[in-house]
Amino acid sequence: MSPSGRTRWAVLVAVLALLLAPVAGTAAAADKPSVKLSKSQAGTGSSITVSGDGWRARALLMILICGQAVPSRGVPGGTNSCANADGRAVTTDAKGRFSRKLPVAEPPVPCPCVVHVATVTGAKAEADAIFQVAGHAVEPLPTETDGGRLSVLTDTRLDGSGSLLTWFGAPPARTLVFTVGNVGTSAVKNPVFQVGTAHGVFAPQWEEQQWRGTIQPGKKARLELPVELTGGAHGEYTVSLKYGGKVLAEQPWDVGRPWGVTLFWILVCLVVPAALFRIGMAVVDRVRPRPAGGLRHRGLRLPELALRLPGLKPSTAAHAAPPTSTLPWFTPDADPGAAGGRLSAPHDDSPTSPTTPTREGST
User: Do the Cβ atoms of 113 and 195 come closer than 8 Å?
Assistant: First the structure.
């Protein structure tokens, strides 16, 4: 190829690069999450519409009004400077867009304020939009210190143990203990850490915790942050520590199964059926029909039993048994034993009986 041809190709490539540069910049900007507000200022009690674009598809987002923040610096104090009770959650659509109404509430710190939108799960992404809460106090932002950097100097550990309540399903709790050092050139005041708990292969659930104190350059401090799981949690967990968007340490946590809950349900399955059976039998015994003459006792009577006992003397048996007839087919009046021992039929022995014949002429 001639030198003139090469020059023409170089000019053509340069022109194409200049034409495609704005398009590439627009595409890159479109991929960055953005937030738009229906109003830039509103008072407490009203509401605004928050919309966004460029987010991950089907991502769960949290929308908050935060104080002492600007979009260029984000939210330095973490969610502790936000109106958390009046926040709203929203899920993006398949194109990464969302629209949600947000009630206006005063944050716990003075303005300047922003509407802060951040992902709840998955890869971290956030965006802010300037917003003014009408009637809320406004103060200058605290001095920004970029020279302070924290680093974990010792291995992390989890202090604490379970209790009887944990054995019966109460939330397991531990204390994450570690030592950090300030390797920067300026002091770090009230640092905000993120403590995450992950079960198995699932993504960690992050919770912001602020440590109250100041760490001077070249100094170190021993920190203790509480960690708590949900009730009934058991299995293998991983506790992670994050600061400044960087994971500093991870600590495994093997949580035992709450066997007290299992024992409780076993007892319920045994006791409740037994109690229902007893109640049912008591009801059946009460409502079943009774005989007219009451219950008849079968078996030998006490006197008869006393007479048949081999070890009992006759005199004792006689005193124990009432004087009854040995011939039950006779009535008491016709009992032969009552006639003085006579066994013959009764007859008239009177000398004047008309049935006795007399001789004539007798003297």
Answer: no
Write the DSSP assignment of 260-289 as a string of letters. Answer: HHHHHHHHHHHHHHHHHHHHHHHHHHHHS-
Consecutive H or E run containing 188: strand 188-189
Distance, CA of 335 to chain centre: 87
Provide the phi-psi class of 266: left if phi over 0, else alpha when psi is between -120 and 50, else beta.
alpha
The pTM is what?
0.46
Q: Which residue is it, tokens 């100094």?
A: 219
CB atoms within 10 A of CB 194: 20
CA–CA separation, 261 and 169 (whole Å): 6
pLDDT digits (tens, 9 = 90+) for 26-74: 333 446 899 999 999 999 999 999 999 999 999 999 999 999 899 988 8
Q: Which residues contact 262 (CB under 8 A, 6 or more apart)?
A: none
